[in-house]
Amino acid sequence: MERVLFGGLPESVLCGDKEILVYTDFRTWMQVETVLFETEGEFYTKLPELLKLCYPVLPDTLEDAVSGLVQFYLGGEPDEKAGSREKRSRQLYSFCQDAPLIYAAFYQQYGIDLTTANLHWFQFKALFTGLGEETKFARVIGYRAVDASIFKSKEKRQFYHTMKQLYRLKDRRTEAEKEAELQSVMEMLF
User: Fold this and answer.
1) Angstrom distance (rounded) from CA 76 to CA 82
2) How far apart are CA 63 and CA 135, in angstroms?
3) Considering the entire predicted model, what is its pTM?
């Protein structure tokens, strides 16, 4: 992600020894994440849709295509950094379900109207990561992430339990299915 400040915003990924153009608009990559993590099915059944979303022209090999897709999705970090990432064990947000909250947070914090914004995926990710606690979206993420059992006060535990239920994500897949899918992507790459 340091490329946002120091390396410019890439329009392509390195696949083998070739630079291959990718679609860079944040909306495209929000769709990629949604297909990867929020839709049913095995990774290989989603692959045709993912490749259409990512590339105007496909790389020469499927391995290069998947590697480039994952590299760009993660923010352009090649090989080692991408492979050593901590697995996403629990989903805390959904671009679909949280769309109104995300829109409001960007408008509140940055004055950016996401319906008309022209943002590169790397720009969006940096801004998304920087959303502050003053936004309702960040508070909702906090409710989802907190372990209510850590609170000694019964009232606080009940409050966080209620908030977790109120803002829980509706996901059709089990955690095991999500983990297996992410593992399958990583195995294909490394």
Assistant:
1) 9
2) 40
3) 0.79
